[in-house]
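Support request from a user on the community tier.

User writes: "When I paste my structure tokens into the form, the page sometimes reloads and wipes my input. The last time it worked, I copied everything first. Here is what I submitted, just in case something in the input itself triggers the reload:"
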């Protein structure tokens, strides 16, 4: 039995479970355990304890990209699981900013612990790669996702410098996917590479194995109707049995997805658990 528990998300469900803008997933294959992202850091350990999950048992910790709401709890997670291998894209350590024309300086959305590579302490095994890698048996990270579509972008104003002069292509963005007897389970972090690009990449990596379920953030908050239409079209082609979209997907896009796939969409808050026999 494979289980997928949402430890951190903007909203929460369940007595005593905290909501926090961010994302963290606990993947338990029965023989191995993977922590995918760590939220901002305030809710991770609290929610794990509340949900009966022992983070110290993690065999691996995977980062979807270097934004604070996904890596803020990394230091605490690594301290609890000193034996866990850390997986990340080499560019996840870059300084990262967001901003707009209204402000002359960008707002930093990365953290010192990652930028200074303090995570390399204590001789921990680190896998920094652009390639797709099997993290534990049956659980893979996509590696760097090729940007092929002409309607997808990173989803917002992201930069590599405070002056907002260098656009961040967010090449560090990646997702996780699980192989099960009934198909592939896809878990997005933020899909800054584009949900359609990511699904196409996973299809190639899995030799077009059917998609069983998809979860996570799609960063469609600022997407135009054409991009959302194309995302719906790609999901319809995959026809997952279950879909749970949250975090950065945006309420407008989530409403559209629920309208398009009412039998497949589920409410996706911190505290939920999905099982895959």
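"...and here is what came back when it finally went through:"
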């Amino acid at each position: 039995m494979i289980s997928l528990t949402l430890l951190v998300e903007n909203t929460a469900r369940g007595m005593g479970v905290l909501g926090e803008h961010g994302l963290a997933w606990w993947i338990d294959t029965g023989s191995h355990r993977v922590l995918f992202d760590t939220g901002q850091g305030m809710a991770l350990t609290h929610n794990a304890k509340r949900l009966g999950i022992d983070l110290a048992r993690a065999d691996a910790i995977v980062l979807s990209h270097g934004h604070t709401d996904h890596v803020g709890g990394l230091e605490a997670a690594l301290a609890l699981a000193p034996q866990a291998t850390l997986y990340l894209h080499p560019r996840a350590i870059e300084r990262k900013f967001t901003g707009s024309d209204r402000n002359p300086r960008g707002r930093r959305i990365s953290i010192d612990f990652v930028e200074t590579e303090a995570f390399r302490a204590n001789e921990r095994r680190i896998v920094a790669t652009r390639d797709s890698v099997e993290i534990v048996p049956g659980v893979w990270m996509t590696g760097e996702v090729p940007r092929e579509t002409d309607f997808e972008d990173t989803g917002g104003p992201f930069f590599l410098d405070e002056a907002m002069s260098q656009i961040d292509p967010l090449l560090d963005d990646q997702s996780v996917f699980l192989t099960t007897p009934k198909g592939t389970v896809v878990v997005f972090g933020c899909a800054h590479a584009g949900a359609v690009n990511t699904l196409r990449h996973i299809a190639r990596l899995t030799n077009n194995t059917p998609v069983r379920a998809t979860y996570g953030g799609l960063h469609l908050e600022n997407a135009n109707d054409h991009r959302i239409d194309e995302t719906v079209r790609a999901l319809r082609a995959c026809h997952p049995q279950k879909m749970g979209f949250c975090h950065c997907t945006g309420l407008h896009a989530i409403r559209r997805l629920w309208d398009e796939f009412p039998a497949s969409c589920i409410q996706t808050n911190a505290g939920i658990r999905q099982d895959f026999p």
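Agent notes: The reload is a front-end session timeout and is unrelated to the input. Residues 225-238 form the longest helix (14 residues). The chain has seven helices and 16 strands. Escalated to web team.
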